[in-house]
Design goal:
Chains A, B, C, D: GO terms for molecular function: 4 iron, 4 sulfur cluster binding; amidophosphoribosyltransferase activity; magnesium ion binding. The structure is a homotetramer. The first copy, chain A, is an alpha+beta fold and about 475 residues long. Chain A has 2 domains: about 1-250, Aminohydrolase, N-terminal nucleophile (Ntn) domain (Glutamine Phosphoribosylpyrophosphate, subunit 1, domain 1, 4-Layer Sandwich); about 265-435, Rossmann fold. Chain A is built from 18 helices and 25 strands. In chain A, the strands form 7 sheets. In chain A, strands 4-3-5-2-11-10-12 form a 7-stranded antiparallel beta sheet. In chain A, strands 6-7-8-9-13-14 form a 6-stranded antiparallel beta sheet, with helices on one face. Chain A is elongated and about 70 Å long. The two termini of chain A are about 35 Å apart. Chains in contact: A-B, A-D, B-C, C-D. The interface between A and B is large, with 60 and 60 residues.
Amino acid sequence: MQNEKLHEECGVFGIYDRSGEDEVAAKTYLALYALQHRGQETCGIVVNDEGVMRSHKDRGLVPDVFGHGALERLGKGQIAIGHVLYAAKPVQSRSSAQPLMVRHVKGPMALGTNGALVNAHELREEIERSGGIFHTDTDAEVISYMITRERLSAPSIEVAVERAVPRLRGAFSMVISSPTKLIAVRDPWGFRPLSMGRIGDDQIVFASETCAFDSIGATFVRDLRPGEIVVVDPKGERSIETHCGRRGNVCVFEYVYFARPDSVIEGASVHMARQRAGAFLAKEHPVEADVVIGVPDSGLDAAMGYARESGIPYGVGFIKNRYVGRTFIQPTQMEREALVRIKLNAVAATVKDKRVVMVDDSIVRGTTTAHIVELLRAAGAREVHMRISSPPFMNPCYFGTDIDSRDKLIACRLSLPEIARETGVDSIGFLSVPDVERIAEGAHCGFCTGCFTGKYPIEVPAEMPANKFDCPIPESVKNKKK
Amino acid sequence: MQNEKLHEECGVFGIYDRSGEDEVAAKTYLALYALQHRGQETCGIVVNDEGVMRSHKDRGLVPDVFGHGALERLGKGQIAIGHVLYAAKPVQSRSSAQPLMVRHVKGPMALGTNGALVNAHELREEIERSGGIFHTDTDAEVISYMITRERLSAPSIEVAVERAVPRLRGAFSMVISSPTKLIAVRDPWGFRPLSMGRIGDDQIVFASETCAFDSIGATFVRDLRPGEIVVVDPKGERSIETHCGRRGNVCVFEYVYFARPDSVIEGASVHMARQRAGAFLAKEHPVEADVVIGVPDSGLDAAMGYARESGIPYGVGFIKNRYVGRTFIQPTQMEREALVRIKLNAVAATVKDKRVVMVDDSIVRGTTTAHIVELLRAAGAREVHMRISSPPFMNPCYFGTDIDSRDKLIACRLSLPEIARETGVDSIGFLSVPDVERIAEGAHCGFCTGCFTGKYPIEVPAEMPANKFDCPIPESVKNKKK
Amino acid sequence: MQNEKLHEECGVFGIYDRSGEDEVAAKTYLALYALQHRGQETCGIVVNDEGVMRSHKDRGLVPDVFGHGALERLGKGQIAIGHVLYAAKPVQSRSSAQPLMVRHVKGPMALGTNGALVNAHELREEIERSGGIFHTDTDAEVISYMITRERLSAPSIEVAVERAVPRLRGAFSMVISSPTKLIAVRDPWGFRPLSMGRIGDDQIVFASETCAFDSIGATFVRDLRPGEIVVVDPKGERSIETHCGRRGNVCVFEYVYFARPDSVIEGASVHMARQRAGAFLAKEHPVEADVVIGVPDSGLDAAMGYARESGIPYGVGFIKNRYVGRTFIQPTQMEREALVRIKLNAVAATVKDKRVVMVDDSIVRGTTTAHIVELLRAAGAREVHMRISSPPFMNPCYFGTDIDSRDKLIACRLSLPEIARETGVDSIGFLSVPDVERIAEGAHCGFCTGCFTGKYPIEVPAEMPANKFDCPIPESVKNKKK
Amino acid sequence: MQNEKLHEECGVFGIYDRSGEDEVAAKTYLALYALQHRGQETCGIVVNDEGVMRSHKDRGLVPDVFGHGALERLGKGQIAIGHVLYAAKPVQSRSSAQPLMVRHVKGPMALGTNGALVNAHELREEIERSGGIFHTDTDAEVISYMITRERLSAPSIEVAVERAVPRLRGAFSMVISSPTKLIAVRDPWGFRPLSMGRIGDDQIVFASETCAFDSIGATFVRDLRPGEIVVVDPKGERSIETHCGRRGNVCVFEYVYFARPDSVIEGASVHMARQRAGAFLAKEHPVEADVVIGVPDSGLDAAMGYARESGIPYGVGFIKNRYVGRTFIQPTQMEREALVRIKLNAVAATVKDKRVVMVDDSIVRGTTTAHIVELLRAAGAREVHMRISSPPFMNPCYFGTDIDSRDKLIACRLSLPEIARETGVDSIGFLSVPDVERIAEGAHCGFCTGCFTGKYPIEVPAEMPANKFDCPIPESVKNKKK
């Protein structure tokens, strides 16, 4: 259930097509479609045709925003970048949608980023004190300033980026278009994924996830290294590695829930990582049962892994109503529980009179879980054993994930037996931190597990608000703080 | 892929609430949500509050049609009936949406039906010759006339229905509201499902599928018998069995594809029937392979059945993009193949270098299948063995299913080896007719398999157009015929 | 101000184009645009292409309903008919929009009518008792039945119409399309206007008002005679005059307010009739004043007439905000008076320190009038003398005009001095009945002034509800009556 | 006809309510409604509640943008400013809508401006060279930078504004909200109007036109002096007159066409100015005729003036279809001429067999005029004498009016006799420049007549593009220039 899940904020995509045919907008559109799960609040595309940039962005899903001829109006070009954004709070101003397009003395620049800076506040103040003005509350605007100010003295846009990066602390996987160049940048800590691909000889692409490559027929080339800057221009692509050196710390939740199962991050299949999580879970928390089921969609892979490891048969425990979308309108006279019942239905043929292992990937507040468990009981399940394929959330994320405040997190509020009682299950088991760090088999990186452990790869300012993230906070809230 | 599938036309729902509280509209809304897979073209609800009927219906999905206060405006009542409709051709006139509401000398009547009559044309002519006029081209209007004309002399609405039924030949599962009664009717041949349920002591409900009961917390009571008329009024419910006697002939495709897996029809679980279909398929068409995968969503159950029976591991072969809906806009400059690639993506981790059994429930034209197979090849599958959990379509349906014309059906055009070649698979196998008749284990009915065999439970007029169905054919077409 | 006005229900249009080019839909669209003032609730067009009829109708204004390709989808044809409808109460069901299209044994028929029958209720009961069913609560459906039932035995559609007309009592100006003929009918009492025009040699048109002819470049031929039936088919046009004979009784309010000033009805210019009304008013109710102003838009013509006759200068007293349309949203925190202020503003340069004669065409409830007078006072008017270019409404209309119930009509509630006091004017004067009957100089007809006098050209059933009109009354209301 | 008219770009409004009740948003909404004629492309409102600013702006008309709860969501506050914008070319990016809201070191600032700077390009370059970045192509963003940069050293926002004004050359009437102050500024040349009003003791308002005051019940206090800065805060209002001194040069076209007739600018009634223009025209270009008519809506006042001065009777020559709005859809198969015919219709009763003086306020390209003249001829007018209540346009405007390029202006292309021939009139006469400067009787200002004479009150850079204006030029165009 969406409203019981953590949310990742953004997905980015960029394409450079030497041949300059009219497909860069269409390919960006298809890629954003494939990245839609990373952000459903706003989306946007900027097309760069020989230095002339056309932009379209708005609130809404990719097909809604780019219908009605919007895609066609973007026209042809050599470069396009795209962005999907999730916002924790409703976006007040459409101007916060990305890519952000700014003009400065050396021409226009468009930029889309995924992640969150921990020093955005300091940088913003520094810029304002030297005459800058801000239209939005986004990290994207802060980063744009840092780059364009360097650009005043730098010999090229890539040198400006290179000089700006050391000032930025936090998570940022980003794509930038200058009038003639496409630049991709991954922060030196490697929090968020960013991959490079290729279509034929003429086209280089970058995307937050490799599933975007499949959707446009691109082949995966490699992941960007933490700190790497890749520049693509008519002369080809080249890498600036000044800021490389650290080992990556990919957010482990990318494997557990955020990324699409058909994506491969740092060499490890997300689908396989989830099955492994389920298998580890079976070892850590075995139970005698008749059937293993997953909570659709994201709990299914781990459930299969659990079933395979435990030898207990895998079954289809729930049917998800595929017509329940954003537009679900709850009749005012119905209780909230109906919402769960219309979205999911238990398959009695699978669970009736059975001891059921129900696998889900995470549990945030726990209220929806309780309703789901009721569905199983009503369908005749004799026992329900909940297994969660990640450790309990206990801490804020400073790098782009929106986590509920601590007082709402069930794992902060209650002990394990209390959680079991509150959600109505017969037993409960979470994956351990050491095991969650092993699910991405073969990944050539380390992981950030700060939300489970409270230990982060980068120093977090004590006074920083929890849940600081790169999304437009309503003006009211922000201004109040000042 | 939707556009490669057969389509069922309709779903019906009815509720009688003795207590007359204000939830009949909301419950009908939730039930139609659960029945949405049976029809996405139009939907409608009629609420009957002590003889005053309020109606709302329109083109579009349930949440779209009933948003913006439409549901609230229906108000409270004792009876509500609802309908979802699939239309093979775009509906020209909204007035064809159901429930159909008519007024006659004994007051208003609302009616929603699922199925198709084979003698609609004759009845229509008879009515017109005696002074009737038609606003739509629907069976619902023909049936309304047959009932209201009997009503002129009949002592009650249920007697009028009882007298009208023998005149109707074909498939009709319907719900009717008179000012004071809710009536459910199933045709004497039992082509389409229709079940009765209960909420507490005061509420009786009817629905095309039992999944609608789960969505509103109703408990299943029983299926209507073929030919049965159930009347619910303030005195309780009673059954008129004058036309009962025949053994049912449920459309076997309800089990194979139309119905939701969490529904139970005539005592047999749809989910289990699909798994059994897969298991039979494994016996009929075994193959040496490394993994069994299903084409989402409807091929998954049969794939699991195949895997279990064959002992070959089950795997997740495809990820479906859950944001691709009705609004997908294909960039004009992209080839049609991109449509498949954005909807589905193969999971390389599952199929790379593997011999793959790919299970789907049916194959209509075959073009989409070819694209899906390409996805597997591109992801590295070494062999692809296609298994179809139903026999090949070769004949028209006269009872409410929209089947392509024969010259487009791949099974009519090509031999098995040719189908394999055209779709690019290494081998192909369809379920046999005798086995498809065994999938619904425990069902207390027979089956209609006319679309596979050309033998129908009822005589089909030779001159009848193939694909005659209860959907508004554009006026132009109809009038041309006259 | 719209909400203080009487409303006419409908406008009709029909075109027959022997050449059968693709302009009949477009011309009907333009004609309905010109007739939009006669009805803003629903509109529709039916195009008849060699017996194949295509229809599009919906709630909304003409440009909204026929945008997005709807007009183009109607295609080409030889005949088209169109209709705009005003509904006193919100239309519950779109199926009440006209033209009504029905099918019967002799083929399809489309029909649009303007007016109201006084014996609709009787006819409806008669039809229901002989096996008819009703989908709507419109006179159009009753008339359709009367015609199609005659058609069963009549040798042609026009003979069926001829036989049906004597059964219909009340106001009906209508256009009918059969598969090959366009038929226009005006009721024998001539309540509502209906004119015939011509475009070149090949096209015959009919419209409620001549302004529709101007919008499509047609030339006026003549008004239909009361009771006349005109048939247009490939052989040309011919008239059936069986029911002619009575002198017409045109609703005088067509001249006063309903019709567009650029229309000519029964030979009399509406614009000139309004100026004459103003001139008569000046003679009946002279006053010493400095300036004569009109309430936009419909009071302006009469104000000019008053000014010319009285010799008092004409001035522009109000500016109407041309951006206030249907979509005006009143801030919830503002009082209702703001609505008047945003729609109209007084021109201080015209009225300051002046004795003002303010001319309007009618006064219904009086509340808006009071707010308008306040605007003049606030702008500095020293005296305000209200002159109304029609007599006071005191009686219901049974022929197609929606008049408020008596207890809301200011002229029923209050005496003249009380009206002056309640609306805040210094003096008040209404046009007399004898004078209102003289405003349409040269008109070759009599007038219906029943709403002023209570005397109608046709017997009105005593038990009939006031305000019976040809508009879909909500089902709830109707059914309650039974 | 709209598409044959010049366009003004913007209207501004601001309110300060000491009591801080919840009406500032609603009043701004009503005021923008009254100013809608000054700009229909975008509109926006910013509400300032104790330093917390909430903004809503979008493309579309005021009622469309602020429907659906948008107004309510703005909430209560002490200050609100609003803006309507006309854009010569379709606005690519919604972020160009005003008020522009920026954040800088001293807090947020919102700003809306009407007019155009001649040195925007220079200032923009200066800002970019010192590290600024631009999101839009608007003067508003340039002005925001100029003010916020001064703000870094200035002791208050008003001193920052005072220091910034001398850097700005051109037309700007603007309203600014800081966290605690409402500031109104009029440029030192006084190109565009800006008035101050009052509601009770607690509320001060500013608006581009006084008609906005009437719509909210405010009383006019005075016009701002050219160069004046008025600051309103909790201590009251005060004026900064450092930059005052010049005599105003109000755009004379404000009187001729832009402003609403019920507005009063610099002490002169717009309605009266138009009547005087007509009267002068009658003296300059007399003709023997039977009737004087105006082209609705803006030619009517001048026609009345002409009639009164000449003694020829005034008549209503045209009826405008009040349902033709933005949404008019021209049937593709109809010629463009139909557009004129559906919008306007000639009143034959007025013009038939008459010698007609047709008065309009201006003529741009002349094509629509030709169609209008045809309407009169078709209605039987014997002679048509066109009189234009302003001099011919021959030159670009640099101060906020969008004038067609010279090669399209009929007065640049053709001589007077040629214009008469091309538009089909019997004679033609334009108002002279000396007379147009006298129409605003009693106005305490001079006038800018640059578009007629080519002489501007301020030096215009030779290399400046014609039609430079404060509207978002599509990025493509802008960037191309660089």
